[in-house]
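Our example copied in:
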Amino acid sequence: MNDISRLSRRGLLAGAAATALTAVTARAAHSSPARTNPVWAEPFQTADGFAGTNTLGQNGTTGGVGGPVVTVRDTETFLDYCDRNEPYVIQVDGIMTFSSKQGLRSNKTVIGLPGAEIRGGGLDMYRRQNVIIRNLKFSGADDDAISVQQSSHHIWIDHCDFSGGQDGLIDIVRGADFITVSWNHFHDHSKTALLGHSDSNASQDAGKLRVTFHHNYFNGTAQRHPRVRFGEPIHVYNNYFRDNALYGVASTMNAGVLVEANYFENVPHPIYSGYDASGPGRVVQRNNIYVNSGAPETLGTVVEPRTYYAYTPDNPSTLPSTVPGGVGVGRI
């Protein structure tokens, strides 16, 4: 496609998106005061946890705020906007069906309107930064549902629903850094979240992979909540682990993981130090609740997340009600 044809195509797509945006705005006006953007474009406060830190030239994670707000209703248009270099807030309206991992560039917010879903494929961030993914359902991915890799940083994955993929639901690998995974529902799957590509990748991952997991519902998923190599600190707090057949959290290959104020229910191995062929990692547990669960394994000391950001954990006894009631799509 030549440059003129490409510009014409993008102009048509933008026009179609603008038309859809106007329709959504009109619908919102019936129940709320007039506004420039649809109601779903408003809740884009910056992330908390590691994605909220002012590091690597980023003032937190704000995604596509400041760029145009577009609404997409077909897969081709959706992937086109994901692949653009400019900032965008991309509102997803409907089911986007595709295969494999498709690229998502920097300075984007991808947020689902009611009923939005990515089916069959996933989103890949490769050397990207400042990305927000919210209120989306991911199902049946033929690879990873979300892949964050190759030194990507400041990524916020929030209020999504993940299930039924062929590989990992979220992989954070190869030097990725400063990421928050919050208020997501993980279910009907085995390998949930992997941090660290392999036991031989210390040169790229050691000192990176700083990730916060908070207020997620690991609901019947078998393992990797998360499984960690090399990174420090990884902060796992205020999550609800329920019926996880293999294990909850695994710290391996000298990673440093703080597991704090979580609720483990029917988890035979809530915390491992070392797993499979991977050597032990350091892991500290504090103020967790274990119901019909095994004893946690701990080892050594871990850098405190409070050296990076402030936080106040909820009382873990409240999590079996507050987390299922707040996670996933339609809750923001």
